[in-house]
Design brief:
By secondary structure, this protein is an alpha+beta fold. The chain contains 10 helices and 14 strands. It is found in: Membrane.
Length: about 475
């Protein structure tokens, strides 16, 4: 199972358990909380009624005054209130008064007058000077039929002479409880959903970051040039830095070993030629022969120098994982500069140069590397172009890239050589001298083009050979 999925499942389990326990705890506290608030209101109402009814109760005129009619009218009122979106169309309080013996002398419902309530806690405890309250089911078989009762003492000079009880059915509170529970469930589910979404995004981000590091390590193991993933701080940045450092150390060691073997192999031939010529020069020989051997030593020394310089340039490019700068490079100006540097060779071979590059075409990249790459292409084309031949340089914009092509009139490249032209140290004999080059020029050009995110192709065309480069365009 992928690491991201495992992290997400753990996160889901944590959020699920936390959400369940929190919601369950809060849900269990809603009903008692509402009832506690209601009971507090009943206490205030009962004590208010006790003060209002005290004088008439003391005088024994409760039933003779208008109190029965007033309480009956109170019970029949229709408030038509809208309490936070919930309608209230009837009053739910029941008020009854008992004397010092617990006998009901006044009842807003009119059903309990004369009955003995002295054993109910709201009356029994209040008459004893304690807080009297009870919750009793009006239907013993219905759990939703319970009614809260709160009693308040009627006092005369500090002596309890009666009790006023205010009652309210719990069913009248149920709509508010249900609405609160529904809202809590909706909000809780929403928060859990957001938590799970955040967990999924976190798992996806972490998995994506690890996949990028894995892909980078895989690409490095396959010898492909890729840029190390970048992260902003934390352990992932440290891990990426450590992997990059490890790659640099391992590649550096293998790279040096490979180049030492290659350089040793390539230097054997010119060194052997120089040594042989030097041994022959130690003896007596005609002056013309001496000049020929001295010329051989000079040409082989130049070949060795050129080989070492090109190896160093190629090694520098191959070791890099990205460009040091990306700036606009005018292509027409760069080509003019390179043609001017090769003007002597072009005039010496009487070549015709055809230039088709717009002045507003700009490459996006590192100027030094682009100059080196295009210079190598031009040198290679000059080596194979016969006297009075044609060089044609074109460039055009294709989407977000510039396609640059260099055509040189020459014999077709053999089919067996075409796939190997970009190989390191592979070269074809030059028509003028019959000698091979270092075989590093085209390989260097390919590495520079790849470093810029472009592509290179070489092929035979009518009357010659054409090299095409695709490089980034600067707007």
């Amino acid at each position: 199972m992928p690491l991201g999925i495992r992290i997400f499942l753990v996160y889901v389990l944590f959020i699920g358990l936390t959400g369940y326990f929190v919601l369950n705890t809060v849900m269990e506290e809603i009903r008692p909380g509402v009832r506690q608030s209601t009971e507090e209101t009943l206490v205030d109402t009962a004590n208010l009624m006790a003060e209002i009814l005290r004088d008439d109760f003391k005088a024994g005129t409760l039933s003779q005054n208008r109190w029965p009619e007033l309480l009956k009218a109170y019970g029949e009122r229709q408030p038509k209130a809208n309490i936070w979106g919930l309608p209230k169309n009837q009053v739910n309080h029941r008020i009854y008064v008992t004397d010092a013996k617990g006998i009901v002398v006044l009842d807003s419902s009119g059903v309990a007058v004369g009955q003995d309530y002295s054993r109910w806690n709201d009356v029994y405890l209040t008459l004893r000077g304690e807080y009297g309250a009870r919750s009793t089911r009006s239907n013993p078989d219905d759990t939703n039929s319970s009614v809260m009762h709160v009693g308040a003492p009627i006092r005369d000079n500090g002596q309890i002479i009666g009790v006023v009880t205010v009652a309210k059915p719990n069913s009248s509170l149920q709509p508010y409880v249900d609405r609160t529970e529904r809202r809590l469930l909706v909000y809780g589910a929403g928060l859990i959903g957001l938590g799970l979404l955040f967990g999924a995004l976190l798992s996806w981000w972490l998995s994506a970051a690890l996949r990028r590091l894995t892909a980078y390590a895989q690409a490095v193991s396959e010898g492909r040039r890729v840029e190390v993933p970048h992260y902003r701080g934390g352990e992932l940045e440290q891990l990426a830095t450590a992997v990059e450092h490890m790659r640099t150390q391992l590649e550096g060691k293998a790279y040096v070993e490979r180049y030492v073997h290659t350089l040793t192999h390539e230097l054997k031939s010119p060194l052997a030629a120089i040594r042989g010529a030097a041994e022959l020069l130690q003896g007596e020989m005609p002056l013309a022969q001496q000049q020929r051997f001295v010329s051989n030593i000079d040409s082989e020394s130049a070949r060795m120098q050129q080989l070492i310089e090109r190896l160093l340039n190629l090694a520098q490019v191959e070791q890099r994982q990205g460009l040091e700068e990306r700036v606009a490079v005018p292509l027409a100006g760069l080509v003019d500069e390179l043609l001017s540097a090769q003007a002597a060779r072009i005039e010496g071979k009487q070549l015709r140069v055809e230039l088709h590059i717009a002045a507003d075409l700009n490459l996006l990249g590192e100027p030094f590397l682009l100059r080196q790459a295009l210079g190598n292409l031009l040198e290679n084309a000059l080596d194979f172009t016969p006297a009075c031949g044609v060089l044609r340089l074109r460039a055009e914009r294709v989407g977000e890239q510039i396609e640059f092509s260099l055509f040189n009139q020459a014999e077709a490249i053999p089919d067996y050589a075409l796939p190997r032209l970009n190989e390191r140290f592979y070269s074809l004999p030059r028509p003028d001298s019959g000698r091979k080059s270092t075989g590093l020029g085209l390989n260097f050009v390919e590495e520079v083009v790849k470093l810029h995110g472009g592509a290179m192709s070489i092929g035979n065309v009518d009357d010659g050979v054409e090299v095409s480069l695709r490089l980034p365009y600067d707007r």
